[in-house]
Design goal:
391 residues, alpha+beta, Alpha-Beta Plaits, Elongation Factor Tu (Ef-tu), domain 3, 10 helices
């Protein structure tokens, strides 16, 4: 996007063509200062409200409202919805309650990760898969064809917003009173706000206290955005975008960057999301059992990269070398102004994955020394986001 186009009207300036869908909040985000967009799940997503460091501080000190309608929902319903949903994921869902959310992996027959969504259970046989950036609607429909299960798979009229940051709870009180004060981490509730139908969950892609508000009527997107901003502005709420700085601090995965179809859960240290002993069968079960037994040849690690602050996130995978040999790649890198360090997620061979290992990172401009460190880089127990409860 050129700098000239950033100041044009929505109809003129942000032109990816009609094949890229605009969210119900698109016009509102432009009014509130969105200056640039990228594409995620075939939709526009605001990625620029000015200084990304200011956006980060707004998030961690106050609260931000983000258009994440790109988290498109795949709706699984029908008498066999529960059995079908378990078929898609290696995470054991047998004790997942109605009203609960779970972070899950969707794997293919080789154990590769197709998506790492949040799963919402709205009723006994009614689920939403809240997607990362890949076409799970098509995957689910393909799996269903010969499954002999009685299910319906569709994309509902649902568009989430993220309200994230330490003051998000106060904003929610301003909107809903005390109706949602007892909503636990990774649980949801169906509510209305001035007649606007919503599902609200205590989730988000920020590692901070936060909520997601799933709008169930796209015609009321502008109204919902303005209602939230009106209630939140006196409390410090700002419009914003998902923060690369904060999500890398929290070691949160970005699909296509930190994981893809050729990445398996064991390489990411996500063993807790795989239950090879449950009674139900799931896609990738045999492959994941073999991977577990044989071990992996590479692992995701955290890196601290020396030198001056990085000017922004990496836009290519940076090679990682150890003892003169190529051992992997940096998948996500950023400068954290809070930690005053360059931090990164990287996929490296297991012989270079031990804490304290010194490596060299070939950035777009130079080679920099780096050290393997623990991840997440900040608040490793997710206490800010979780409070009480777990996911």
């Amino acid at each position: 996007m050129t700098s000239e186009s950033r100041h044009l009207s929505p109809s003129e300036g942000f032109g990816f063509g009609t094949q890229i869908r605009k969210s119900p909040y698109f016009d509102a985000t432009v009014r509130w200062g969105a200056q640039g967009f990228s594409v995620y799940n075939h939709m526009y997503i605001p990625r620029d409200f000015g200084d990304p460091e200011e956006n980060f501080w707004n998030l961690v000190n106050d609260a931000i409202l983000c258009d994440v309608a790109v988290e498109r929902q795949v709706e699984i319903s029908g008498p066999d919805a529960s059995a079908f949903m378990q078929m898609l994921t290696p995470r054991n869902l047998s004790e997942m309650a109605v009203g609960q959310c779970k972070y899950v992996l969707i794997t293919n027959a080789e154990g590769g990760i197709i998506n790492d969504p949040v799963l919402l259970r709205l009723a006994e046989n009614h689920f939403w898969i809240s997607l990362a950036d890949s076409d799970v609607l098509l995957w689910a429909q393909g799996v269903a064809v010969h499954s002999d299960l009685d299910i319906t798979i569709a994309e509902p009229d649902v568009s989430p917003l993220q309200l994230q940051g330490p003051k998000s709870g106060k904003v929610m009180e301003a909107l809903f009173g005390d109706r949602l004060n007892d909503l636990k981490y990774y649980w949801l509730r169906e509510v209305e706000l001035d007649g606007i139908p919503l599902v609200v969950s205590r989730t988000g892609w920020s590692s901070e206290l936060g909520y997601e508000l799933y709008l169930r009527d796209g015609s009321r997107g502008d109204e919902l955005w303005e209602t939230i901003m009106a209630a939140g502005e006196p409390l410090g709420l700002k419009p914003g975008h998902t923060s690369s700085i904060r999500r890398i601090e929290g070691a949160m995965l970005s699909y296509h960057a930190d994981a893809d179809i050729n990445t398996n859960p064991y390489e990411l240290g996500l063993d807790r999301l795989v239950d090879l002993d449950m009674a139900a069968d799931f896609i990738g079960q045999e492959a994941l059992r073999r991977i577990r037994d044989e071990g992996v040849s590479r692992k995701q690690v955290g890196l601290e990269i020396e030198g001056d602050p990085l000017s922004g996130p990496n836009t290519t995978f940076w090679p990682v070398n150890h003892a003169g040999a190529a051992v992997g790649k940096v998948t996500s890198a950023i400068y954290s102004p809070r930690l005053e360090k360059n931090i990164a997620l990287a996929m490296v061979s297991t012989d270079a994955a031990a804490l304290g290992t010194e490596v060299d990172v070939m950035t777009s401009s130079t080679s920099r020394p780096a050290t393997v460190v623990e991840r997440p880089f900040f608040d490793p127990k997710k206490s800010l986001a979780a409070g009480a409860g777990s996911h």
